[in-house]
């Protein structure tokens, strides 16, 4: 995929010409041998650049392009099919096998489907939480309610948004941070620390007790209505918070309560009333032996059972607990072995802050493999849209042969893609297996949340090179990493601005 950069040719020496190069342009300029150093050509093209597109220039380009038979064929072919399918690198596909020599014993079933919503982080996390519960309750198939967490997250995010709006009330409305807060206050997306906050406060329930309503599966209209109302309410709260008098303080508190009640009403009417976190539910099910069983627990108790469990999926493997899990990230823009956080990003106001331990990619992958060897699935965040095919279920950095179709290649590295906005953490999924050769990973097995119609009945294969380029995060148990990595969690975090690429929620 990457562009191969050739070593620049040496500049001509002599009295006829010197070639100056800048920004990919080569320009010849006559330079007499006796020219003094003060008269040397400037380090940029001497001719003036064209500031506007000229029809004659575009016509020349068209003529030159169409002179090539391959380009004329490409125009005809691209007219009726997506270019990425036409340019699929079949040679690369030959090694994208769904064969793995290290697979966790309980991968979890069924394959879930987030449908037309951005709830991937909730599906990925509940697919991790369900594994210890499946072992405890002897289940072959089991799904936790993502809608339950989605419901509470919307209300918590509204409260978080109000608090950040109040905290920035004295900043100009056009301030970049304020505008970022207003941009998407109740996004469907989230992160591991955010779902951990929800489970600690509200617990978990089986999917059968709170299934998806229409607006959970199709969240765009819900989000538009909430966002429109929250922006309107934000202007009122900013106005009250910027005044320094007793009346405004009381009015601010009353207005915030009223506004939250309005948001609660919208969310409840569209998603339905969820189980009360403090009241027991009754859940009846068949175990793997076909025996009918019944569970009476509160959502908080049920969540604690999953979140604080010390589970050994394999008899001799180390115990793993979701309550000890944290995010390793690979962000080459920032210093490695450094704790990172993002300013004013979160959901539960009194919950744990969002934290990332930035490490080299080899350290991140070592943590993932340790989790798989312990028999546990791994929540991970990536840029799923790059060089992936949802029909084939393949994520391969060599998947599309751009040079064949366009005579180009893409040359930015991971840090440059992050810096320019070309790449970010757009999706969360679960890793359940890896294929190792000489203890080095070759490809990874990925459980997605796009239903069985995507990939190999819902499963994807991710090449190790794709992981290097487009995976940014993996959530692992702190007991399965070195003391040097655990020590990073005790650092004071470097605070990234709210608009940083690591502030994008999967």
Fold and architecture overview:
With 506 residues, the chain is of the alpha+beta class. The chain has 3 domains: 1-49, no CATH class; 92-119 and 309-503, Cathepsin B, Chain A (Alpha-Beta Complex); 127-271, Cathepsin B, Chain A (Alpha-Beta Complex), CATH 3.90.70.10. The protein contains 17 helices and 16 strands. The strands form 3 sheets. Strands 3, 6, 7, 8, 9, 10, 11, 12, 13, 14, 15 and 16 form a 12-stranded mixed sheet that branches. Strands 1-2 form a two-stranded antiparallel ribbon. The chain has a two-stranded antiparallel sheet with strand order 4-5. A hairpin with a 4-residue loop joins β10 and β11. The longest helix has 26 residues, at 246-271. InterPro entries: Papain-like_cys_pep_sf, Pept_cys_AS, Peptidase_C1B. One of its GO terms (biological process) is response to toxic substance.
Summarize the structure in short.
This protein is of the alpha+beta class. It has helices spanning 55-66, 69-78, 83-86, 90-93, 120-136, 146-167, 176-183, 192-202, 214-217, 220-241, 246-271, 299-307, 361-373, 402-406, 414-420, 464-470, 483-488; strands spanning 18-22, 25-29, 102-103, 281-286, 292-297, 325-329, 338-342, 356-358, 378-382, 388-389, 394-395, 427-437, 440-447, 459-463, 471-477, 494-496.
The quaternary state of the protein chains shown equals single chain
Which fold name corresponds to the CATH topology of the largest domain? Cathepsin B, Chain A
- Taken as a percent bin, the fraction of beta residues is 15-25%
For the biggest sheet, the summary is: 12 strands, mixed
